[in-house]
C-alpha cells in the first residue's frame, strides 16, 4: 500500500479538479433568486464530513479519538438536519406563493 | 461496494445543486440531497471497524434535534446569521475529525501514532487550518450579523502585515508538525488559525457580509476537501469541491455587484467612517418630504410601480406589509414588480427569500439585468430600505467610493419614493443626490409602519 500512496493522491487530485469543474457549471446554472437556498444546501452537504467523524467514533471502548469523533458527529448532525430543514422551509415558500396567486387569478 | 455507494451519494449531491436552477425543480433537488446524505451515513455505518452504534446513534439524535429545533424556529430575517453559525460548525467538525485522525491514525488506515504518512499529515494540517479559520471567522460573522458585535469595520495599524506574518507562522508550524508529529504543535496550529480567522473578518463591515458569508461557505467546502484527502475519501473530496466552488462563485457575484474585487473586500475597512462628514455638504439642500397619504396618492395614479427592497426592509420585517400594499395596487390594475440588486441584504438571495416568505410570486421578482431597462417606462419607483444601490453617483462621480458599482436606475422613473428612517447615508457613507431631486419624495419612518399606513390610505 505504501508504494501506491502517491498514486492514491493523484487519483484524489483528479477527482478534486473534475468535481471543481462540475461545481463551477452547476452553480452558475443556479438562478440568483435561489442563492440563499443554495447556501443552505451546500451547508448541509458539506457536513458529509460526518463520514470521517463516524469512522473515528466507530471502534469500541473510549479514547481521545473516539470522543473527538463523537463531537464531530454531533456538530455535523446539527448542520445536516438544520441545513436541509431550513432549505426545505425556504423552498416551500417559493412554491406556496405561486399556487396562491394562481388560485387568486 | 462502498465506493459505488459513495459515488451514488456524490451524484445525488450534484443533482441537489442542479435542482436549484429553477424553483419548481429545487424541492426535488433538496430531497436528492437528503437521500445522498442518508446513503453516505449508512454506508459508513456498515464499515467493519464501526461498532459503537449506540453512541453514534445518540450523537446523531442529539445533533439532529438541536439542528431541527433551530431550523424550524428561526425567523427568515435571521437567515444570514443562521447560515454563518452553521458554517462555524462545519469548520469545527473538520478540526475534530482531523484531530481524531491524528490521535487514532489506525482507524483511518493512514499509519500509526508517531509515524503517520507525510502526505496524510500535510492534508490533515491543511484541513485543520481551513476548518479552524472557517470556525472563528463564522463565529465573528455571526456576531456582526446578529448585532452582538458592532457591524462596523475594525481597522488598526499593520493589520494586513500582522495577518501575513501569522499566515507564515502557520506554514512554519505545519512544516514542524509534519516533521515531529507533536500534539502540542497540532493544537498550536488550531489556536493560531482560530486567531487568524477572527483577524480576517474583523475589518469587514456589515454590508460586505454577503461576500464574507459566501467566502466562509467556500472555506467550509475546502475544509471538507482537506479531510477528504486525509482519508482518501472521494465522496468528501467531491462534495467539498462542489461546496467550495459554490461559495467562490457566490463571492465573485457579490463582489461584482459592488464593483469591487474580492481582495478589496477581504482587506476590508470599507464604509462606516464617513457617516457624518459626507452628509454635511448637503445640509442646505431642500428635501421634499411626504407622508403615507401622499405616497398612496402617487402610486394609485400610476400605471406601473417598481419596488426596490433593501436591508432596511429586512430589519423592519416589512415584507408582509409591503406585499399587502403590492396586492392592493395590483387590484387597481397597476403593474407591480420588484427589483433586486445582487448585494441587497446580508446574504446572497436574502431579499428573494423574504419576499417569497411574504407570498410574493417569484415571477414578479426580477434581477438587476432583467428590469433595469424598464425604469424609464415606469412611473413610480418605491425604494424601501435601500440606498447605495440606487445612487446615481456610482455612474457619474469618479471620486465616489461606490463609482462603477452597478445600480438600479430608479432615477429614470418619473417619480421616486424613498422609505427611510432618516437622512443618514447608506453603508458606503456616500450621500445620495437622488434625495434632493424634484421628483423624489422622502417618506421618513419605520418601513413596516409606512407600508401599513399606505395600505390604510389605499383602502380608504
Describe the fold and architecture.
The complex is a heterodimer of chains A (105) and B (460). By secondary structure, chain A is mostly helical. Helix content of chain A is 81%, strand content 0%. Chain A contains four helices and no strands. Chain A has helices spanning 5-28, 35-46, 50-57, 64-104. In chain A, helix 2 runs antiparallel to helix 4 and helix 3 runs antiparallel to helix 4 (64-104). Mean pLDDT of chain A is 86; it is low at 97-105. Chain B is of the alpha/beta class and 460 residues long. Chain B contains 18 helices and eight strands. In chain B, the strands form two sheets. In chain B, strands 5-4-3-6-7-8 form a six-stranded parallel beta sheet. The radius of gyration of chain B is 25 Å and the shape is elongated. The interface between A and B is large, with 87 and 116 residues.
Multimeric state: heterodimer
Major sheet of chain B: size, sense and barrel closure?
Answer: 6 strands, parallel
What's the Cα radius of gyration of chain A?
Answer: 20 Å
Whole-number radius of gyration of chain B? 25 Å
* Order of SSEs of chain B: HHHHEEHHHHHHHHEHHEHEHEHEEH
- The helical percent of chain A reads over 70%
Instruction: Estimate percent helicity of chain B.
Output: 55-70%
Amino acid at each position: 500500500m505504501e508504494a501506491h500512496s502517491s498514486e492514491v493522491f493523484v487519483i484524489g487530485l483528479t477527482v478534486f479538479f473534475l468535481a471543481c469543474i462540475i461545481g463551477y457549471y452547476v452553480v452558475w446554472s443556479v438562478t440568483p433568486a435561489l442563492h440563499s437556498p443554495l447556501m443552505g444546501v451546500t451547508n448541509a452537504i458539506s457536513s458529509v464530513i460526518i463520514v470521517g467523524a463516524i469512522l473515528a467514533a466507530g471502534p469500541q471502548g473510549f479514547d481521545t479519538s473516539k470522543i473527538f469523533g463523537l463531537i464531530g458527529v454531533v456538530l455535523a448532525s446539527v448542520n445536516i438536519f438544520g441545513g436541509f430543514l431550513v432549505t426545505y422551509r425556504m423552498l416551500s415558500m417559493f412554491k406556496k406563493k405561486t399556487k396562491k396567486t394562481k388560485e387568486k387569478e | 461496494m462502498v465506493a459505488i455507494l459513495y459515488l451514488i451519494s456524490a451524484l445525488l449531491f450534484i443533482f441537489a445543486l442542479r435542482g436549484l436552477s429553477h424553483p419548481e425543480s429545487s424541492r426535488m433537488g433538496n430531497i436528492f440531497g437528503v437521500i445522498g446524505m442518508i446513503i453516505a451515513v449508512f454506508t459508513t455505518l456498515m464499515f467493519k471497524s464501526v461498532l459503537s452504534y449506540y453512541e453514534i446513534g445518540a450523537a446523531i439524535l442529539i445533533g439532529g434535534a438541536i439542528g431541527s429545533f433551530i431550523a424550524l424556529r428561526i425567523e427568515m430575517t435571521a437567515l444570514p446569521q443562521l447560515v454563518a453559525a452553521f458554517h462555524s460548525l462545519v469548520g469545527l467538525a473538520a478540526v475534530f475529525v482531523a484531530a481524531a485522525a491524528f490521535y487514532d491514525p489506525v482507524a483511518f488506515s493512514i499509519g500509526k501514532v508517531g509515524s503517520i504518512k507525510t502526505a496524510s499529515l500535510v492534508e490533515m494540517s491543511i484541513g485543520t487550518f481551513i476548518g479552524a479559520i472557517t470556525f472563528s471567522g463564522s463565529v465573528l460573522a455571526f456576531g456582526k450579523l446578529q448585532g452582538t458585535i458592532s457591524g462596523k469595520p475594525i481597522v488598526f495599524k499593520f493589520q494586513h502585515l500582522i495577518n501575513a506574518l501569522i499566515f507564515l507562522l502557520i506554514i512554519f508550524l505545519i512544516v514542524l508538525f509534519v516533521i515531529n508529529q507533536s500534539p502540542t504543535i497540532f493544537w498550536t496550529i488550531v489556536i493560531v488559525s482560530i486567531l487568524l480567522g477572527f483577524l480576517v473578518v474583523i475589518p469587514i463591515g456589515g454590508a460586505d457580509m454577503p461576500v464574507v458569508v459566501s467566502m466562509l461557505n467556500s472555506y467550509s467546502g475546502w475544509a471538507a476537501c482537506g479531510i477528504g484527502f486525509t482519508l482518501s475519501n472521494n465522496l468528501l473530496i467531491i462534495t467539498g469541491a462542489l461546496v467550495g466552488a459554490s461559495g467562490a462563485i457566490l463571492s465573485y457575484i457579490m463582489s461584482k455587484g459592488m464593483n469591487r474585487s474580492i481582495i478589496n473586500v477581504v482587506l476590508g475597512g470599507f464604509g462606516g467612517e464617513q457617516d457624518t462628514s459626507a452628509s454635511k455638504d448637503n445640509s442646505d439642500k431642500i428635501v421634499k418630504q411626504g407622508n403615507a397619504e401622499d405616497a398612496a396618492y402617487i402610486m394609485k395614479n400610476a400605471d406601473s410601480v417598481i419596488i426596490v427592497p433593501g436591508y432596511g426592509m429586512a430589519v423592519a420585517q416589512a415584507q408582509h406589509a409591503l406585499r399587502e400594499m403590492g396586492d392592493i395596487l395590483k387590484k387597481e390594475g397597476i403593474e407591480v414588480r420588484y427589483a433586486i440588486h445582487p448585494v441587497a441584504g446580508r446574504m446572497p438571495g436574502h431579499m428573494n427569500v423574504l419576499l417569497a416568505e411574504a407570498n410574493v410570486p417569484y415571477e414578479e421578482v426580477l434581477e438587476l439585468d432583467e428590469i433595469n431597462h424598464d425604469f424609464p417606462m415606469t412611473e413610480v419607483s418605491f425604494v424601501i430600505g435601500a440606498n447605495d444601490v440606487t445612487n446615481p453617483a456610482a455612474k457619474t462621480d469618479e471620486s465616489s467610493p461606490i463609482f462603477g458599482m452597478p445600480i438600479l436606475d430608479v432615477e429614470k422613473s418619473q417619480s421616486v419614493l424613498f422609505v427611510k428612517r432618516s437622512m443618514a447615508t447608506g453603508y458606503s457613507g456616500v450621500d445620495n443626490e437622488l434625495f434632493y431631486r424634484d421628483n423624489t419624495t422622502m417618506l421618513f419612518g419605520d418601513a413596516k409602519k409606512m407600508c401599513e399606513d399606505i395600505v390604510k390610505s389605499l383602502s380608504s
